[in-house]
Write a structure and sequence with these properties.
Elements (H helix, E strand, L loop, with lengths): L1 E6 L5 H13 L7 E5 L6 H13 L5 E5 L14 E5 L1 H10 L8 H15 L2 E7 L10 H20 L2 E6 L2 E6 L5
Parallel strand pairs: 1-5, 1-6, 2-3, 2-4, 4-5
Antiparallel strand pairs: 6-7
Helix pairs in contact: 3-4, 3-5, 4-5
């Protein structure tokens, strides 16, 4: 199964995605879930957010790895449920970090996602809703929005489930709610 979970900041999308992973993993009991963390800890706020997410999933049987760029490099040794959090960070990392994909970000991320899906039993991707505030941005931010939009559309087309979390409530845009 492939699921795309989106929402604004503080919407509850992370908690929903983690609960979905736990539900999906029930059939694969003896294998730990994998949490792919994409947030590069560049300041104190990032470290606080990372710590909050660690606390949220502390007792949920996740193994965690960091992957700031090059999702294609991940190799799973057995079928498991993967939580990738979050696509917004991975996209920015690929665009702007040294060694990232740069102008080839969309293609690189989509290839990496396809590789991950071919190895995992379930993949749950968290992404941010950054498209509806009506603010006009500088050209570089618009390029980031375009890249992330293309990636989110790619995932949604392939996904079995696409849900937007609003105030902790899942709005199902594709598929059926499992939790």
């Amino acid at each position: 199964m492939l699921a795309l979970i989106t929402g604004g900041s503080g919407s509850g999308k992370s908690a929903y995605a983690e609960s979905l992973c736990v539900k999906l993993q029930e059939e694969i009991k003896e294998v730990p879930m994998l949490y792919i963390a994409t947030m590069y800890p560049f300041d104190e706020e990032a470290y606080r957010k990372i710590e909050r997410h660690r606390e949220l999933r502390k007792n949920k049987n996740f193994n965690a790895i960091e992957c700031f760029t090059n999702l294609e490099q991940i190799t799973l040794d057995r079928k498991t449920t993967v939580l990738l959090e979050c696509m917004s960070n991975l996209t920015a990392n690929e665009m702007y970090q040294e060694g990232g994909a740069g102008a080839d970000t969309v293609e690189a991320v989509c290839r990496g996602l396809d590789r991950l899906c071919s190895q995992a039993a379930n993949v749950v991707v968290v992404s941010n809703e950054i498209f509806s505030d009506g603010i006009e941005y500088d050209p570089e931010t618009v390029r980031y929005q375009q890249y992330l939009g293309c990636i989110n559309q790619y995932i949604a087309k392939k996904a079995d489930l696409a849900a937007e979390i609003v105030y902790g409530i899942p709005l199902i845009h594709k598929g059926e709610a499992l939790i």
